[in-house]
Amino acid sequence: xxLSYLLGAIAAGFLCxxxxxxxxxxxxxxxxxxxxxxxxxxPAFDLRRAYRRILLVTVLAAVLTVLAAILVAVLLPxxxxxxxxxxxxxxxxxxLRRLSPNNERNQRIFARFYEDCLTEESDIDDTRIS
Length: 130
Known about the structure:
The chain has helices spanning about 5-40, 45-75, 80-95, 105-115.
């Protein structure tokens, strides 16, 4: 097997983990604590809706990552599969800081992606007696 196939498999594994696999991990390890924090700060935040969306993102990203790994394992020879797995590990290690809920980028993305989970409180009456 040529070295270019191995390097290509490493690059493909790195990209797969960086673009898809890390989304599942970020949803689990960052979005759940951010959702709990947002709900504690603002009880009008719909925690169940946020959890459903986190579960959806996690499942879809995990399924895509596993399907890509299965395709690589079936279609490529063993050294290329090992390179792909090495690339996935490198992608994970390079993106390890993204798993923190205190990461500013995660907080901005969470605020934008989950802003519709903030429901208005219906028991507040805006009419004022003058």
